[in-house]
Specification:
With about 160 residues, the chain is mainly alpha-helical. Helix content is about 70%, strand content about 0%. A hairpin with a 4-residue loop joins strand 1 and strand 2. Helix 4 packs antiparallel against helix 6 and helix 6 runs antiparallel to helix 7. The chain is globular and about 45 Å long.
């Protein structure tokens, strides 16, 4: 996991974004354990979700990911079934989500501004959408959503709803 969360590469995307929120990020904040934990939880969740959904494709390509590594754990000598490992990884992602939510909602003793916490949380929500049905890269679900948003005409009901507001 130590290498996995860094390899997910959210650092270059999310961390610079935090400097454009209009809140001052002091050295104390960005070096705090809370800040690093938020980044780690978000990234591990993303790494696990990606690996769960890309396992079969990557195995065919001869690539290893956390699911394949966990299935053939040489230390324990136990070879687990794919379904068991995937379920265990899904449980782990849920635990990451709960821990992230706890940090995001925590105010007492927190040094990370709420706006920054919201960015970490929102990126977790983006991950939920991205990996809802497939690995987010090879499937068409996200592409279909984008096409629908860009090319489908706004429905008459939505226009009527907005007029009533």
């Amino acid at each position: 996991m130590e290498n996995g969360y860094v390899s997910f590469a959210f650092g270059p995307i999310v961390l610079p974004t935090l400097y454009f929120l209009g809140v001052k990020l002091s050295k104390e904040i960005v070096q705090s354990s809370e800040y690093h934990k938020l980044y780690e939880l978000m990234s591990i969740r993303g790494r696990l979700m990606n690996d769960i959904h890309s396992f079969k494709r990557e195995t065919k390509d001869g690539k290893l990911n956390v699911v394949a590594l966990y299935m053939s754990d040489e230390k324990s000598g136990i070879v687990e079934e794919e379904e068991e490992v995937v379920n265990e990884m899904k449980n782990l992602t849920e635990n990451q989500k709960k821990e992230m939510m706890k940090l995001v909602m925590e105010t007492k003793g927190s040094v990370v501004p709420k706006e920054c916490k919201d960015v970490f949380w929102n990126m977790c929500n983006v991950l939920n959408l991205f990996y809802a049905t497939d690995d987010g890269f090879t499937g068409n679900v996200i592409l279909d959503v984008v096409k629908e948003i860009m090319y489908e005409p706004v429905s008459h009901e939505l226009i009527m709803f907005k007029e009533h507001l």
